[in-house]
């Protein structure tokens, strides 16, 4: 089974908000989140004050921690969002907006959105205008500090994941990271996570999908695979690249119930996994808390197969097809 333990409780992730969080917790755990509280951290800095606490095993830093890399920069039109379209462009090494991209996983750019407490996950596919401006409708259901990740490959260049902060003003109480569980229930589906993940090593994880207790064997292709997995590290929200094992139509990969991925976590700690899968024309998301112990260590506890978490009402999907879901 997957190595899981009781996660650390996350009270806040942005160093600039530490005093605000502490005061709010002392006063009763609530505070008003205003745009002026949302100071962006320097490019590439760890926003939660952990700094060098992460012992990153990989040579390259995880994605999403920097707003600029290799001459490319994520340029949002605003760092505060109150509704409507979210707009941004990718600035190239020549200082001009990039207008040509390489399609990866059936899209030219993937936009991932999550609140700093790892709630409010969304996977969106913005539209590109001729002038290089990307735009997508974005509804942030709860106030707080969010992180947006642009995952893309400029034409003729390597793929990048750049990140930027985004504030949704209002009264906000950070949520605790959910307890680890081997199962997640969304609608009438149950998704089970299995694997043995170690820091710094590429390992396989398997997610199995069932419906009303019966294995699902007719998953539909979604973004070039039978599932799309996003992993975010607790604390700094480092974005991990996860690769599916096999593709639809390769003569070997079956459409469920199991969907396999190769994942490399750069350091011990807590992670949140988000599996998007498509069945009966609708995309759903299963979410898991994964705790990776130090090398040679052991988790505090491993939940039984009966342990499960449930999808909160409203999972961020807006329709029954790819476009309606915003994926």
From TrEMBL:
- Transmembrane helix as a keyword of this entry, yes or no, is yes
Q: Where is the composition biased (Basic and acidic residues)?
A: 44-57
Which stretches of sequence are listed as region Disordered?
36-64, 286-327
Q: Mind telling me which residue stretches traverse the membrane in this protein? A: 12-29
- Key words, A-Z: Membrane, Transmembrane, Transmembrane helix
Q: What protein is this chain from?
A: Secreted protein
What's the source species for this entry? Stackebrandtia albiflava
């Amino acid at each position: 089974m997957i190595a899981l333990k009781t996660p650390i409780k996350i009270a806040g992730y942005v160093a600039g908000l530490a005093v605000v969080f502490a005061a709010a917790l002392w006063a009763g755990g609530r505070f008003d989140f205003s745009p002026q509280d949302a100071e962006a951290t320097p490019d590439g800095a760890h926003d939660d004050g952990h700094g060098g606490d992460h012992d990153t095993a990989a040579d390259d830093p995880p994605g999403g921690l920097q707003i600029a890399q290799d001459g490319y920069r994520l340029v949002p039109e605003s760092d505060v969002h109150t509704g409507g379209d979210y707009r941004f462009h990718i600035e190239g090494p020549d200082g001009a907006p990039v207008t040509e991209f390489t399609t990866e996983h059936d899209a030219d750019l993937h936009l991932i959105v999550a609140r700093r407490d790892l709630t409010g996950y969304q996977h969106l596919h913005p539209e590109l205008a001729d002038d290089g401006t990307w735009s997508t409708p974005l509804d942030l259901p709860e106030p707080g500090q969010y992180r947006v990740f642009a995952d893309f490959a400029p034409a003729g260049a390597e793929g990048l994941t750049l990140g930027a902060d985004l504030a949704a003003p209002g009264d906000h109480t950070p949520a605790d990271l959910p307890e680890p569980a081997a199962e997640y229930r969304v609608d009438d589906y149950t998704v089970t996570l299995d694997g043995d993940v170690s820091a710094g090593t590429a390992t396989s994880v398997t997610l199995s999908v069932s419906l009303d207790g019966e294995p699902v064997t007719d998953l539909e292709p979604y973004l070039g695979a039978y599932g799309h997995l996003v992993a975010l590290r607790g604390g700094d929200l480092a974005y991990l690249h996860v690769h599916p094992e096999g593709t639809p139509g390769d003569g070997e990969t079956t459409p469920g119930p199991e969907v396999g991925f190769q994942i490399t976590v750069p350091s011990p700690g807590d992670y949140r996994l988000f599996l998007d899968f498509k069945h009966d024309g609708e995309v759903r998301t299963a979410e898991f808390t994964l705790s990776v112990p130090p090398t040679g260590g052991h988790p505090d506890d491993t939940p039984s197969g009966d342990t499960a978490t449930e999808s909160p009402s409203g999972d961020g999907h807006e329709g029954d097809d790819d476009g309606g879901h915003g994926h």
